[in-house]
Amino acid sequence: MAGLIGAATALSCAAADFDYQLAPERIADGVYVLVGRTEDFSFDNGGNIVNTSFIVGDSGVTVIDTGSSKRYGEQLRAAIARITPLPITLVINTHHHPDHFLGNQGFATAILAATPTTTHGIETEGPAFLDNMYRLNGDWMLGTEVVVPGATLEPGRIDSGGRKLEILTFDGHTASDLVVRDIRTGTLFASDLVFNGRAPTTPHADIATWLEALDRLQQIPFSHLVPGHGAIATDTRPIEQTRRYLQWLSRTIAEGAEQGLDMTEMLEKPVPAEFAGLAVVDKEYRRSVVHLFPQAELAALRAASARKAMASPTFEHIAK
Predict the structure, then answer these.
(1) Apex 190 CA angle, 201 and 32, nearest 5
(2) What does pTM read for this prediction?
(3) φ, ψ for residue 226, nearest 5 deg
(4) Could you tell me whether strands 224-229 and 187-195 are parallel, antiparallel, or unpaired per DSSP bridges?
(5) Which of 62, 54, 55, 66 is nearest to 88 (CA)?
(6) Who's near 80: CB < 8 A, 6+ residues apart?
(7) Residue 97 and residue 81: Cα distance in Å, rounded?
(8) Is residue 113 within 8 Å of residue 90, measured between CB atoms?
(9) Within 13 Å, how many C-alpha atoms sit on residue 178's CB side?
(10) What is the rounded distance in angstroms from the CA atom of residue 223 to the CA atom of residue 187?
(11) What would the pLDDT profile of 229-271 be if each residue is shown by its tens digit?
């Protein structure tokens, strides 16, 4: 009981001080990850549900994603300074979801970089994301504003701070999902294409494309796999877990639409035992149904209309 009270008190103090208590974990030579909670956004966690990372090179530091608020970005920068005095030379936003870019204020705009599609997404959807994050995380967000990356990333190999990195572009989770591979250590930063022990989020997902991306991703050799959410891995199990969940989700939604189920009936469907242990799975399943089921219903209606048209006799057949 005393332990529980102590933990609760520590959490309360952290929240009162708006301290994310960021603790970089060294997973390979010069490679550090700050593992977020496998939760949804809340007043308690302040949006600290994402994995952010940084790579210390010979002459500078590369940051991969900046977290969910101005406070997070500033505390991330301070955590990096505790590890190395080297300057931060590149900050990558892997995609345009708010927990991956709303910490941009902690860094100089000129070194913020993303793909053109991600930059456009931040510009156009960032303000709405920000409003929602204030609603979900409260005062943790105070002072946070949308900062658009000032530099563009294209696929290929780059030298960043004296470190060779491979920039890989995919889509499926969003319209642009950037993956980074550190050549020296073989660390693969998969961003939100991969979730480990947590149900994937799908507000901008094209699941068929996402599954193709996972197939490609699994062919890339790595020593460590850093998912967007969840524990770091040294094997492909998180990729396989994400794939199986998305396959089940896609199949379940398509079958429900074909059977003529309504939204309420879909929301009441149980999650299979295989996925019941994933963090926030019930909530994410319901969110996915809301996002994806209307499109599946439309596809099912179009398919039914096409089948009906094919079965109907044409005038030429009648005339004969």
Answers:
(1) 115
(2) 0.91
(3) -105, 105
(4) parallel
(5) 62
(6) 24, 32, 54, 61, 63, 88
(7) 26
(8) yes
(9) 26
(10) 6
(11) 999 999 999 999 999 999 999 999 999 999 999 999 999 999 9
